[in-house]
Design brief:
The chain is an alpha/beta fold. About 20% of the residues lie in helices and about 25% in strands. The longest helix has 18 residues.
Length: about 375
């Protein structure tokens, strides 16, 4: 048996390390847009659980990619409040526990500047406020919840390179009103109610439109998202069980299309959904992109080990206009680390095909380098609102 010298062993270790680092290097995006263009990355559900000992490792394999972007937005699927126990934190989700205040440590190292907090794990008015206070103390902007109804519906506006981007977020699933939904005088989250998965409560849709109209003249780009309903909880509608228009969470429900198209018609520039633990289809509606569910990002709540599908969405803004919207599929490895996939081969190609198959009105998706292009258009120098 040949004995390797210490120098050779060292060289092999360095080579192996270099290969590992290369695999996790910043993703190579396509297109040349100039240094004034703004790159926004949108990632799926983030829930830090199993890695509580060191939440900063949450994006081990994507950190370089996220930090190369101008701005990263995510759905924060977990309260930054201490857990009371394994069965009572969220009444309709047995064994679910909150990430706790330490979960915020996963965000800033991954360049996650804004999080949406309107979702079905925002449970308990006091816990919602505790979570928001942790985000505030750590400089993470949040949208979709607040001390009252107006705060819950207030947008977040972030400026990058002179471009103002506004975010709004809502949830179509929650435990019960008294536990989560903001009122004129009580804290909670912003909602859109759909009892049947077909239509949205008219007053909620009116409020969404009012929110967008109020935000539109203040910003260059409006991004609207919502946590999909995936049915309803037994007590969500006062004890009356909501119906499911479609029991397959991979397929888009009619109310999602109503929400997305109404938001875009009212003045939004991009709409996406989350919360179904898988990806759904995409659409280009009147020249504007919709991604109906972008699945998971870092999500290590026990019980969801097999729910690994997700998308990273890239939005390029040039001259105050979205000129490219693309996505890259992601999954998680044996260490539960999320990582990006080549969309042209293997599991990446499989997930891209799934997006196509789940799209009711599939656009002409094409692979450009290492991304799947949903929308691509030139921006004239004078193209401003």
């Amino acid at each position: 048996m040949r004995i390797l010298s210490r120098a050779l062993i060292g060289a092999l270790v360095v080579t192996g390390l270099a290969a590992t680092l290369a695999a996790d290097a910043a993703w190579t995006w396509s297109g040349t847009y100039g240094n004034r263009a703004v790159e926004l990355l949108i990632i799926g559900d983030v829930q830090v659980h199993s890695r509580r000992a060191d939440p900063t490792t949450a994006f081990n394999r994507m950190k370089d990619t996220l930090n190369a972007a101008d701005l990263v937005y995510a759905n924060l699927e977990g309260l930054l409040a201490p857990s009371a126990g394994t069965k009572i934190d969220i009444p309709d989700k047995p064994e679910w526990t909150h990430p706790g205040p330490g979960g915020v440590k996963a965000l800033a190292p991954a360049n996650i500047t804004v999080v949406g907090v309107a979702n079905n794990v925002a449970s308990g008015r006091a816990n919602i406020l505790k979570s928001l206070s942790v985000l505030d103390a750590n400089g993470i902007a949040h949208v979709g919840a607040g001390r009252n109804l107006d705060e819950a519906h207030a947008p977040v506006i972030v400026e990058r390179k002179g471009v103002k981007i506004g975010f709004l977020q809502y949830t179509a699933r929650w435990y019960r009103d008294a536990d989560a939904i903001a009122t004129a005088a009580e804290p909670g989250v912003a909602k859109i109610a759909s009892f049947d998965g077909l239509t949205i409560e008219p007053s909620d849709l009116d409020r969404v439109q009012a929110d967008i109209r109020a935000l539109r003249p203040r910003v260059d780009i409006v991004v609207v998202s919502h946590h999909n309903r995936d049915g309803s909880t037994p007590v969500q509608f006062g004890g009356k069980q909501g119906s499911a228009a479609n029991k397959d969470r991979k397929m888009t429900e009619a109310y999602q299309k109503q929400f997305a198209r109404t938001a875009l018609d009212t003045g939004a520039d991009l709409v996406f959904g989350h919360g179904t633990h898988t990806v759904q289809g995409v659409e280009v509606y009147k020249g504007k992109p919709i991604l109906y569910a972008i699945g998971h990002s870092n999500f290590d709540q026990p019980g969801y080990e097999k729910s690994t599908d997700g998308l990273v969405v890239r939005v390029v803004i040039q001259n105050a206009r979205i000129v490219r919207t693309s996505f890259v599929p992601v999954t998680r490895d044996e260490h539960n680390d999320v990582f990006m996939l080549d969309p042209a081969t293997g599991l990446g190609a499989t997930l891209v095909q799934a997006v196509k198959d789940r799209s009711t009105n599939p656009p002409a998706l094409r692979i450009d380098g290492q991304e799947v292009v949903l929308l691509d258009r030139p921006a004239a120098r004078s193209d401003r609102r």
